[in-house]
C-alpha cells in the first residue's frame, strides 16, 4: 500500500481540493455541540475502511466544521503521528487485498498510551462515510459494480464509485467514545482493552450502516414467491379453494397477485431522484424545515426496528418524513399507502420510493388479509423501518383524529410471533404554517363531498407554488418501545405461544390502548408557530378583528404563557415578537390590514376565517387545562379553588378522550392546581385565602382571560347540545345513532345562527366519541331495544354547565332544541 502518511502536507491539500472539485457531501453531526466534545481532551477520528479518498473527505469536513485537524499529531507521549486511524486495513497479496478487522498499529498505540498514563483520556470520534449510500446487495450488475460496499475491492472500482456517486456522498460524525472508559475495564490487560475497543467500534459501524442504508434488500420476485410458500398463506389458499370450490393452483395465483400488488420495491436510485426533486420543492414552497430530536431517532435506529407513526395533515407528510430521514442519515421507511395511489406512472415511482400498497378494507377476504399480514411480518422481522398513519386519512380540521388500530394490531401480532429484535414506535408531528390543500379542505369543511386521496390532488395543490407556505416543523416525539408497553398491558406475554393466526383475548384492548398512547405522544410533540398563535387570538374575538398592537401583545403573552409551563419536553415554542409574526402572516395572505389613524386593525376575511380554525386546532390541546380554568370565570366572579379542581376533573375524561391529553385522571388534579398558580402569577386570576377571583372587567387581564376561555368553550357547548337533546327526548326514547344525528343537526343550526367559524363544531365523529365516553363512564346505559337510559349523573352534568356556559348560550341551545323537537 502506498504510504501517503509521508507525503508533504501541501500535496495532501492539493489532492483534497482536487477531489472537492467533484465531490459534494451531506454531513451530519459535525459540530462540537452535537458531538459533546470536551475541549480539554485530545480528539482522534476513526474511519471504517482504509482509503485515501476517505481521508481526504474526513480532513475537508473537519476543517469546514472548525474541528481539530485529522492530520495533526496526537500531543501526548507515544501518540500516533496523525489524529485518525482506520478500523479495517487491507491484508493479502498485492492484487488480492481485502479489508479485514485487524488490530491496526495506531489503535494499539492509543490503548498503549492510555494504559501507561492513567490520567489520559482520548475522545474517539467514529466517522461513517457512504458513497451514494447504496445497499449491500443489488441485482443490477452495473449498480453492483458501482456500489459503495464493493469499493473496498479495488482502487479502480473506488474511482468509478467516486465519479458516479461522489456528488451524493454522505458523512456522519457520531458522539465520541471515551478511550479511558474502555481501558479502565481491563487495567491489567492491554491486549484485552485493545480488542474491546475494536469490538465496540465494529458494532458501532455496523449499527450505523444498518440505520443509514437499511437491511439487505431482497429481490422483489423472490420475496413475493416466498410469501406464497409460508405456512399461513398455504393454509389460507387451501381454505379459499375449498370454500369457493376452485382449483388450488388458481387460488395460489390469486394469492401471488395479491403479494405482487402489495410489496414494495425500494430503489436507492429512485430515492436519490426523489431527493433531488423534493429538495427543489421544499426550497420553492417553504422558508425552511425545523427538525427536532432527530438524534434520538438515530440512536434507536441503530439496533431496533423503527415504526414511524406521524399525524396526517397533508399529502406532503410522507414525502417530507422520508426526505428528512434520508437527509439526516437514516434509511427511508417502507410506507403504507392506499391502493388508490397505485396508479400508472405514479404507483411504480412510489413503490420504488418505499411504498407498499394496501386495500382500504380486508373484510370478507381472508386470503388477502393473510397475505398482507405475512408481508408485514416479513418487513418487521427483517428489521425494516416502516411508516403508517394511525389516523387513517388526513385531518381536515387540524385536530388529531381518533386512531384506527388496524395497522397497529398487525404490528403487535407480528412482534408477538417474533420479538428477537426490539421494535419502537416513533411518533412524528408535522407543524405547518400553511397547508398545500387549504382550498380543498375549505370546500370539504363547507359540506362538499370529500375528494378521494390521490397524488393528483397534491399536483392540483402545487399549482400555487408561487405562494409562500412558510416554515414547517418536524418534531419527533417520545418513543414507545413495544416490549415495555406489552409488559405493562400483559406482564406474561413472553410466556405465551403465538402463531400467525392466534389472536389472544387481551390483544384487542391492548391495541386500543396503544392507539391512544400513540396519538397522545404525537400531540405531545406539537410545534407552536406564529400562525397557530395568530389563529388562537383572532378566533377568540367577536368580529375577527383586533388592533395590531393589542394583537401583538396577546400573541406574545400566550407564547410566554406556554413557555412558563410547557405541555411536554417535546413541544416547541416560537421565538420572536408579535409584530414580526403579524407581518409574516400578512405576507402569506392569511390576514388583512385596515389602515386607521389611531392604529391599524388586523382582520380575518372570508375563507381565511374558516381556514384559521385548522391552525388553531393544531395546538388547542396544549392550552386545554388553563382554558377550562378560564371558562369557569365567564359566569362567575369568584370560585373556591377546590371547586375549580373538582369541576374540571369531572369533565376532564371527555376532554382527554377528544384531544388526547397526556395526563391520567389521577394526575390531572395536580396539573389543574399548577395552572391555577401560573394564572395567578400572570395576573389572569387573583387569590385571597382559598377563593380565586377573576380580574376587573375591562382590564387587559380580563380580555386575556376571556380569550383563553374561548380557546375551548365550543367543545363544552357541543357537549351541552348532546345533553340538552337527550334530556328533551327523555330517558329510553332515543338510540345512540339518533342522538348523534340530532346533535349534529342542532350544532349545525347553532353555527349558522350564531356565526361560529368552526366546522368541527358539528362533526358527527366528535358527538359519537362523546356519547361513547358517557356510556363508558356509566352516565348512559342501553336497554334491550338499543335506547339510551341516563342516570341522575346526567342532570348533575347539566347543572354544572350553569357554572361554565353563560346564560345566553344555554338559553340559545335550549331554544333551538325546543324549536326542533
Can you describe what's shown?
- It is a single chain.
- This protein is an alpha/beta fold and 821 residues long.
- It has four domains: 4-213, no CATH class; 266-524, Glycerol-3-phosphate (1)-acyltransferase (3-Layer(aba) Sandwich); 530-709, no CATH class; 713-820, Arc Repressor Mutant, subunit A, CATH 1.10.10.
- Helix content is 50%, strand content 12%.
- The strands form five sheets. Strands 8, 9, 10, 11, 12, 13, 14 and 15 form an eight-stranded mixed β-sheet that branches. Strands 1, 2, 3, 4, 5, 6 and 7 form a seven-stranded mixed β-sheet that branches.
- β2, α3 (52-64) and β3 (84-91) form a beta-alpha-beta unit.
- It is globular and about 90 Å long.
- The N and C termini lie far apart (92 Å).
- The model is unreliable at 1-7 and 135-153 (pLDDT under 50).
Relative strand content: 5-15%
The residue ranges in which pLDDT falls below 50 over 5 or more consecutive positions are: 1-7, 135-153
Average of the residue pLDDT scores: 85
Rough outline:
globular
Radius of gyration, in Å, reads 31 Å
Number of strands: 23
Helical coverage, percent range? 40-55%
Would you tell me which CATH topology of the largest domain applies? Glycerol-3-phosphate (1)-acyltransferase
Highest CATH level, the class of the largest domain: Alpha Beta
Sketch the major β-sheet: 8 strands, mixed
What's the number of helices? 34
Query: N-to-C terminal Cα separation, in Å?
Result: 92 Å
Integer tally of domains: 4
- The CATH level-2 architecture of the largest domain is identified as 3-Layer(aba) Sandwich
Amino acid at each position: 500500500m502506498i504510504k501517503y502518511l509521508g507525503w508533504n502536507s501541501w500535496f495532501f491539500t492539493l489532492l483534497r481540493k482536487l477531489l472537492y472539485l467533484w465531490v459534494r457531501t451531506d454531513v451530519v453531526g459535525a459540530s462540537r455541540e452535537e458531538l459533546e466534545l470536551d475541549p480539554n481532551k485530545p480528539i482522534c477520528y476513526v474511519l471504517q475502511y482504509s482509503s485515501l479518498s476517505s481521508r481526504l473527505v474526513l480532513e475537508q469536513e473537519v476543517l469546514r466544521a472548525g474541528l481539530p485537524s485529522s492530520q495533526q499529531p496526537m500531543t501526548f507521549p507515544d501518540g500516533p503521528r496523525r489524529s485518525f486511524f482506520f478500523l479495517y486495513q487491507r491484508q493479502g497479496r498485492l492484487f488480492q487485498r481485502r479489508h479485514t478487522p485487524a488490530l491496526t498499529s495506531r489503535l494499539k498505540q492509543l490503548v498503549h498510551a492510555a494504559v501507561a498514563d492513567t490520567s489520559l483520556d482520548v475522545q474517539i470520534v467514529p466517522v461513517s462515510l457512504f458513497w451514494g449510500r447504496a445497499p449491500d446487495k443489488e441485482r443490477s450488475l452495473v449498480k453492483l459494480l458501482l456500489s459503495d460496499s464493493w469499493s473496498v475491492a479495488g482502487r479502480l472500482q473506488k474511482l468509478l464509485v467516486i465519479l458516479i456517486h461522489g456528488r451524493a456522498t454522505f458523512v456522519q460524525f457520531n458522539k465520541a467514545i471515551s478511550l479511558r472508559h474502555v481501558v479502565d475495564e481491563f487495567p491489567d490487560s492491554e491486549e484485552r482493552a485493545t480488542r474491546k475497543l475494536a469490538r465496540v467500534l465494529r458494532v458501532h459501524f455496523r449499527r450505523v450502516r444498518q440505520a443509514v442504508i437499511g437491511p439487505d434488500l431482497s429481490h422483489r420476485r423472490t420475496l413475493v414467491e416466498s410469501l406464497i410458500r409460508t405456512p399461513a398463506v398455504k393454509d389460507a389458499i387451501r381454505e379459499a379453494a375449498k370454500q369457493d370450490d376452485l382449483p388450488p393452483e388458481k387460488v395460489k395465483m390469486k394469492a401471488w397477485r395479491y403479494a405482487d400488488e402489495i410489496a414494495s420495491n425500494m430503489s436507492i436510485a429512485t430515492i436519490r431522484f426523489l431527493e433531488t426533486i423534493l429538495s427543489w420543492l421544499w426550497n420553492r414552497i417553504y422558508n425552511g424545515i425545523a427538525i427536532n430530536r432527530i438524534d434520538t431517532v438515530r440512536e434507536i435506529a441503530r439496533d431496533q426496528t423503527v415504526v414511524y407513526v406521524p399525524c396526517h395533515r397533508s399529502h406532503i407528510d410522507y414525502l417530507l418524513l422520508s426526505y428528512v430521514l434520508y437527509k439526516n442519515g437514516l434509511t427511508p421507511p417502507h410506507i403504507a399507502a392506499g391502493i388508490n395511489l397505485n396508479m400508472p406512472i405514479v404507483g411504480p415511482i412510489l413503490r420504488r420510493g418505499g411504498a407498499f400498497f394496501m386495500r382500504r378494507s380486508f373484510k370478507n377476504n381472508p386470503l388477502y388479509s393473510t397475505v398482507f399480514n405475512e408481508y408485514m411480518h416479513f418487513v418487521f422481522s427483517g428489521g425494516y423501518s416502516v411508516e403508517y398513519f394511525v389516523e387513517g386519512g388526513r385531518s381536515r380540521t387540524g385536530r388529531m383524529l381518533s386512531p384506527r388500530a388496524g395497522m397497529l394490531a398487525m404490528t403487535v401480532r407480528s412482534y408477538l410471533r417474533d420479538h428477537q429484535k426490539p421494535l419502537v414506535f416513533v411518533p412524528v408531528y408535522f407543524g405547518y404554517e400553511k397547508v398545500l390543500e387549504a382550498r380543498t379542505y375549505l370546500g370539504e369543511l363547507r359540506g362538499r363531498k370529500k375528494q378521494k386521496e390521490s397524488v393528483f390532488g397534491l399536483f392540483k395543490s402545487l399549482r400555487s407554488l408561487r405562494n409562500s407556505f412558510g416554515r414547517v416543523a418536524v418534531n419527533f416525539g417520545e418513543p414507545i418501545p413495544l416490549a415495555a408497553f406489552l409488559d405493562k398491558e400483559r406482564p406474561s406475554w413472553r410466556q405465551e405461544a403465538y402463531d400467525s393466526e392466534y389472536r389472544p383475548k387481551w390483544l384487542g384492548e391492548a391495541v386500543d390502548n396503544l392507539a391512544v398512547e400513540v396519538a397522545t405522544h404525537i400531540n405531545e410533540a406539537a410545534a407552536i408557530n406564529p400562525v397557530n398563535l395568530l389563529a388562537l387570538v383572532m378566533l377568540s374575538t367577536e368580529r375577527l378583528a383586533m388592533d395590531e398592537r393589542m394583537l401583538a401583545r396577546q400573541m406574545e403573552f400566550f407564547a410566554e404563557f406556554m413557555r412558563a409551563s410547557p405541555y411536554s419536553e417535546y413541544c416547541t415554542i416560537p421565538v420572536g415578537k408579535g409584530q414580526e409574526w403579524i407581518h409574516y402572516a400578512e405576507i402569506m395572505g392569511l390576514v388583512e390590514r385596515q389602515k386607521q389613524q389611531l392604529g391599524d386593525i388586523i382582520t380575518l376575511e372570508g375563507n381565511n376565517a374558516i381556514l384559521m380554525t385548522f391552525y388553531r386546532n393544531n395546538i388547542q390541546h396544549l392550552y386545554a387545562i388553563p382554558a377550562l380554568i378560564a371558562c369557569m370565570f365567564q359566569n362567575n366572579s369568584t370560585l373556591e379553588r377546590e371547586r375549580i379542581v373538582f369541576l374540571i376533573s369531572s369533565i376532564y375524561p371527555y376532554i382527554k378522550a377528544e384531544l388526547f391529553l397526556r395526563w391520567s385522571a389521577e394526575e390531572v388534579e395536580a396539573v389543574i392546581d399548577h395552572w391555577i398558580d401560573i394564572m395567578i402569577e400572570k395576573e389572569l386570576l387573583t387569590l385571597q385565602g382559598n377563593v380565586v377571583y377573576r380580574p376587573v372587567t375591562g382590564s387587559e387581564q380580563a380580555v386575556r382571560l376571556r380569550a383563553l376561555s374561548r380557546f375551548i368553550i365550543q367543545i363544552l357547548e357541543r357537549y351541552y347540545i348532546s345533553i340538552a337533546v337527550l334530556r328533551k327526548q327523555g330517558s329510553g326514547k332515543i338510540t345512540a345513532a339518533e342522538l348523534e344525528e340530532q346533535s349534529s343537526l342542532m350544532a349545525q343550526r347553532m353555527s349558522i345562527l350564531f356565526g361560529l367559524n368552526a366546522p368541527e363544531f358539528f362533526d358527527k365523529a366528535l358527538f359519537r366519541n362523546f356519547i361513547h365516553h358517557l356510556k363508558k363512564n356509566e352516565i348512559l346505559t342501553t336497554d334491550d331495544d338499543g335506547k339510551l337510559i341516563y342516570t341522575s349523573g346526567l342532570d348533575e352534568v347539566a347543572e354544572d354547565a350553569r357554572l361554565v356556559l353563560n346564560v345566553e348560550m344555554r338559553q340559545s341551545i335550549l331554544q333551538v332544541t325546543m324549536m326542533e323537537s
